[in-house]
C-alpha cells in the first residue's frame, strides 16, 4: 500500500488481534464498519501447527513461542528494581504470543468477572486505585462476551455478584481437583468449579472441550474459545474484516496537533502506511505504551498522548506463589481442563495489610513433566523402569496463588536506548514490589503449604514465587483509564484523553488486576464497551 495515500482505507484500524482487539473487531464488523485488524504474527492452523498434534511434541519447537524468537522489543537484560537493602529480583519473563488470537492462543481459558469490590479497592480498603466505572457498568458486556465464548460455569459463587446462568454448564471436577477439594476442607478452604472459556457443550459447530489438558500449547481440537476460533470467523462472516497478518506496526504518524493521521508498518521488511477514520491500540500492556512512546513529533515530543507523563506508568505484573507436590497415587494430571477449580475464600481483602488473592491447582501439560521427560527423569532400566514410569506418571500437582500487584507510578514501561534489529526501540520495564505485595506473597505461600501438607499421600517438593522466579502471564496497567487526564491515559470508554480518533482496548487500561482473577474476560468486556462507543462516534459523523 502506497505511503502517498492519505484517504482512509478503513473505518477502523485495530493493532493487535488478542482478547481486546479481536472482540472489538467483531462488534465493529457486525455493526457494518470496515475494519482492518493488524497482527504481527501468522494465522495458525490448529490441526497442523500446534505441537500436541504430534507424538513427539516434547521435542518440537512450539510455534506459540514465536514472540520470543523474533527480534525482541523488550530488553531482557534488565533486573527488576529492588527496595533499599534488597537483592535484585529475578529477570522479568513476559509470556505472550505473536499470532492471530494473541495470548488467548496459549491461555488456559479462565473467564472471570471481577467482583464489585475489585472496582473500588481504594475507597473500600485504602490502597490501590479506584476504577472510573463499576461492576454494573460492565455487567451486560460481561454477559455478551460470555455468550460469544460459550463460557462454562456454575452459578452460586458466594464471592461473586448474583448472575444469570452460564452459556454452558460447569465442567465436572477432575480427579486432581476432587482430591484437593477434600484436603482443602480440612484447612477451611472451599474449592469451587472455575469459570472457563472452554465450552462444555458444542457451540458454533465446534467441538466441546475434550479435557486433554493442553490449552497452553494451543487447542488442537479448536474447542477452546480463543479469539482465532470463537471470534475471528464471526467477524469474517460479516464481510467487513480485513485480516492483515505478519505485519508489525512500528509507529503512529502524527499531525501538527499531535493527533494520529496514520500508522507505519513493516511486512517482511517492506514499509507501508495505513489510514482509517478511527484507530484502536490493542497490543497489550507492553507493546501499546511502547508504540505510543515511540511516536513523536514537535507536538508530542514525549510520545503520543503523553503530555502528562502517564503513558507506561502503573504497570502491573502477575504476582504468584506456587507449591509443587508429588502424590503417591495417579491423579491423571493430564485429564480435564488445566485450571478447573479455584479457591476464592481470600478474594476480598479484610483490610489494607494484604491484597485479595485466589488459590488453585494446575494440571496442564508442559515438556518438563511430559511422558518422555518423565521417563528420562525416572531412575532404572528395563521392565522395572517401565513399571515405575507407569506407576508415577501423572502424580505431580502444582498448587498456586495469584494476586494483583499494587499499582504505583514508578512501576513503568519506558523506551530503552537500544534498538532491535529492525531499528525499533526496545523497552525497559521497571518494577518493584511494595511491602503489601510481599506480605500477600507470604500469605499465599502459607496457605498453599497448609493445603499441601493437608493432602493425603502428598510430598511437598518445592515452593516458589514471582519475587524469585518472575513469570508474567497477565500484565496490565501502563495506559490506565480514569476521569482525570493528568493521572490517566484513557477515559472510562477507552478513548485516549484529548484525542478524537484513538482508543485503547487491551490490558493496559486496567487500573487494577481484580484481586487475582484472570483479566481476559474483563479485557473482552471492556473492548465491547469501547467498540460500542466507537460505533456511536462514527454514526454521529454520518
Automatic annotation (TrEMBL):
What is a GO molecular function of this protein?
flavin adenine dinucleotide binding
Record bears the keyword Oxidoreductase: yes
Q: Which residues form the FAD-dependent oxidoreductase 2 FAD-binding domain?
A: 11-50
Q: Is Flavoprotein a UniProt keyword of this protein?
A: yes
Domain Glucose-methanol-choline oxidoreductase C-terminal: from-to ranges: 407-527
> Keywords, A to Z?
FAD, Flavoprotein, Oxidoreductase
Give the required cofactors.
FAD
Task: Tell me where in this chain the Glucose-methanol-choline oxidoreductase N-terminal domain is found.
Answer: 198-297
The similarity comment for this entry is: Belongs to the GMC oxidoreductase family.
By what name is this protein known? Answer: Choline dehydrogenase-like flavoprotein
Amino acid at each position: 500500500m502506497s505511503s502517498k495515500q492519505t484517504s482512509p482505507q478503513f473505518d477502523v484500524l485495530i493493532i493487535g488481534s488478542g482478547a481486546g482487539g479481536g472482540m472489538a473487531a467483531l462488534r465493529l464488523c457486525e455493526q457494518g464498519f470496515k475494519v482492518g485488524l493488524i497482527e504481527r504474527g501468522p494465522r495458525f492452523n490448529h490441526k497442523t501447527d500446534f505441537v500436541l498434534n504430534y507424538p513427539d511434541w516434547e521435542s518440537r519447537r512450539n510455534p506459540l513461542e514465536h514472540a520470543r524468537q523474533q527480534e525482541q522489543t523488550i530488553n531482557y537484560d534488565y533486573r527488576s528494581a529492588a527496595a533499599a537493602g534488597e537483592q535484585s529480583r529475578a529477570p522479568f519473563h513476559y509470556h505472550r504470543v505473536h499470532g492471530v488470537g494473541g495470548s488467548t492462543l496459549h491461555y488456559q481459558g479462565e473467564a472471570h468477572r471481577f467482583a464489585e469490590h475489585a472496582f473500588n479497592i481504594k475507597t473500600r480498603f485504602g490502597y490501590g486505585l479506584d476504577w472510573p466505572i463499576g461492576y454494573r457498568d460492565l455487567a451486560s458486556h460481561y454477559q455478551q462476551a460470555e455468550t460469544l465464548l460459550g463460557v462454562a460455569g456454575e452459578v452460586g459463587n458466594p464471592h461473586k455478584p448474583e448472575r444469570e446462568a452460564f452459556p454452558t454448564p460447569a465442567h465436572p471436577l477432575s480427579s486432581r481437583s476432587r482430591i484437593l477439594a477434600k484436603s482443602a476442607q480440612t484447612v477451611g478452604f472451599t474449592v469451587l468449579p472455575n469459570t472457563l472459556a472452554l465450552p462444555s457443550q458444542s457451540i458454533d459447530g465446534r467441538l466441546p472441550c475434550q479435557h486433554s489438558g493442553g490449552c497452553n500449547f494451543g487447542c488442537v481440537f479448536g474447542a477452546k474459545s480463543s479469539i482465532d476460533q470463537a471470534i475471528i470467523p464471526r467477524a469474517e462472516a460479516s464481510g467487513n474484516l480485513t485480516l492483515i497478518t505478519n505485519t508489525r506496526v512500528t509507529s503512529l504518524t502524527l499531525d501538527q496537533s499531535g493527533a494520529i493521521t496514520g500508522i507505519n508498518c513493516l511486512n517482511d521488511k517492506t514499509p507501508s502506511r495505513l489510514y482509517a477514520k478511527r484507530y484502536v491500540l490493542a497490543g497489550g500492556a507492553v507493546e501499546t505504551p511502547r508504540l505510543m512512546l515511540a511516536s513523536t513529533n514537535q507536538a508530542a515530543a514525549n510520545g503520543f498522548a503523553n503530555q502528562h507523563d502517564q503513558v507506561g506508568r502503573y504497570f502491573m505484573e502477575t504476582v504468584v506463589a506456587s507449591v509443587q507436590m508429588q502424590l503417591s497415587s495417579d491423579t491423571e494430571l493430564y485429564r480435564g481442563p488445566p485450571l478447573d477449580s479455584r479457591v476464592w475464600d481470600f478474594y476480598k481483602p479484610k483490610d489494607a495489610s494484604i491484597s485479595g488473592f485466589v488459590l488453585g491447582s494446575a494440571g496442564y501439560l508442559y515438556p518438563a513433566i511430559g511422558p518422555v521427560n518423565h521417563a528420562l527423569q525416572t531412575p532404572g532400566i528395563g521392565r522395572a523402569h517401565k513399571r515405575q514410569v507407569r506407576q508415577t506418571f501423572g502424580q505431580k500437582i502444582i498448587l498456586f496463588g495469584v494476586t494483583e500487584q499494587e499499582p504505583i507510578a514508578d512501576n513503568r514501561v519506558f523506551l530503552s536506548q537500544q534498538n532491535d534489529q529492525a531499528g525499533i526501540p526496545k523497552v525497559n520495564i521497571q518494577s518493584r514490589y511494595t511491602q503489601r505485595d510481599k506480605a500477600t506473597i507470604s500469605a499465599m505461600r502459607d496457605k498453599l503449604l497448609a493445603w499441601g501438607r493437608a493432602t493425603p499421600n502428598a510430598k511437598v517438593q518445592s515452593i516458589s514465587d514471582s519475587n524469585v522466579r518472575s513469570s508474567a502471564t497477565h500484565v496490565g496497567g501502563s495506559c490506565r483509564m480514569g476521569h482525570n487526564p493528568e493521572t490517566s491515559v484513557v477515559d472510562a470508554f477507552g478513548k485516549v484523553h484529548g484525542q478524537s480518533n484513538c482508543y485503547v482496548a487491551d490490558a493496559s487500561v486496567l487500573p487494577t488486576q481484580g484481586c487475582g482473577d484472570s483479566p481476559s474476560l474483563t479485557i473482552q468486556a471492556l473492548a465491547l464497551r469501547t467498540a460500542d462507543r466507537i460505533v456511536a462516534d462514527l454514526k454521529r459523523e454520518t
